[in-house]
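OP here, attaching both records as promised.
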Amino acid sequence: MNISIRTAQEADLPAVLAMSDALIAESCCNGLVPDDLEYLRRYRIQLAEADGQIIGYAYGEKTVSSRNIGDCRKGDSFYDLEMIYVKPEFRNAGAGRLLFAAQQDYARELGLATMSLTAVSKDWKRLLHFYIDELGMDFFWATLSMNL
């Protein structure tokens, strides 16, 4: 399978919204709400495609730290990677890795030296393996929750 990455256009946003809805339907994490068009239009969204089909997306933004966190000091700018999603039938084919690399490249284009993400999943072992062991991110903190 040949996977390519490109920047989304306005005409691609319905496909991104459909994937956002699919993520919610997976019940992979608690508390997620689907994206909407106005929210998505704020970002430069990158798409993963295979054989002309959109199979995943990623987006984030330049953010200014409001406090000392990890490698960032209060007032420092960093890239906040908000979303990486790959359709289930295309997972483990390299699309997530390519989207992550594209987001790193975009952060560098913005002149940023640090990228951060908050990842949510009930399958936290797999999530941590992907981001730490496979992509080389550092673990900084965890937010845990429970229903009362």
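Record two, same layout:
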Amino acid sequence: MRLILSALAVVLLAGPALAQTTLTAPTTTAPTAPAVQPPTAPVAKPAPKPKRPTFDERFDSANITHDGKLTLDQAKKGKMRGVVKYFADIDIGKKGFISKADVETFRKSEKGKKAVL
């Protein structure tokens, strides 16, 4: 009985040690050619953000009559949201149109300093 228990103890204690060893095949050192790297494509830089047109450029573009006077309808069609929003405040003389000088005067006012045109 002692012999069986002793044999069993040896098997149980030696089993995990044997399970951790791995057999590896012998490696041969044959000369190998250097690995050829595939050509890498140049990293493209992200496209720069398009420059927003200046207020004068947007005003001139919206002023389809090219008379220096921008009407509310022209401002709407030119997608000048800030001008449309504050048109009544900019048009002090209630002429029905505004000029670049009117806009500059409005920008100097307290309300105009906060407005985004």
